[in-house]
């Protein structure tokens, strides 16, 4: 278990069986340490349920995966907020204009990430409520697909949250948490349009064949299986959208 920031790395007996005051804080430190998010502890604690887990995962993914862009972040957050006001019938009746393979892969990546968070939250003694990690509280595949396509077409944030002021306020709050945490790791989230220009998405950005650790060093070809199979594994993509070099065996 990496990076438990206060008091070293606790053992499972402490995390699972200890009932002393303050143990929940140790459990949370352990969970955040596993994802190198200890420096964003206060910001994540301030996020309302059920969006803590979503922000935790988005920060981790956007720091690790260089090919995720601002439009992706907008789509993830907008669909999570709009989901709260959708009935089952509305979700069933959703029909995306067309199917984008990258949107499907992004959705799969998020769900696999939430599954990993469930396991880590359990291993750390449940510092956060398990219900906050359930995909149906923060993710719907068709709704995400709709928001992804809209973001790609250049829809405004107001349009993405369906002209709802309350959602708009929450959108900016959640986006701020993710972006500020990424800046701490030297990761600037920019529009996909800028990827097609000479401007980098990261200050001093490394080559396309690496992904980052919290210390800023590259570690090509490593990482969890659920993350390595992220979006972008398509032959026709430009080189700057590839996650790994051809020698690593994966692309993203």
TrEMBL record:
GO terms for biological process: fat cell differentiation; peroxisome proliferator activated receptor signaling pathway. GO terms for cellular component: nucleus. Keywords: Receptor. Residues 208-221 have a biased composition (Low complexity). InterPro entries: Coact_PPARg (IPR026784). It comes from the Eukaryota. Residues 197-252 are annotated as: Disordered. Signal peptide: none annotated. This is Constitutive coactivator of peroxisome proliferator-activated receptor gamma. It comes from Leptonychotes weddellii.
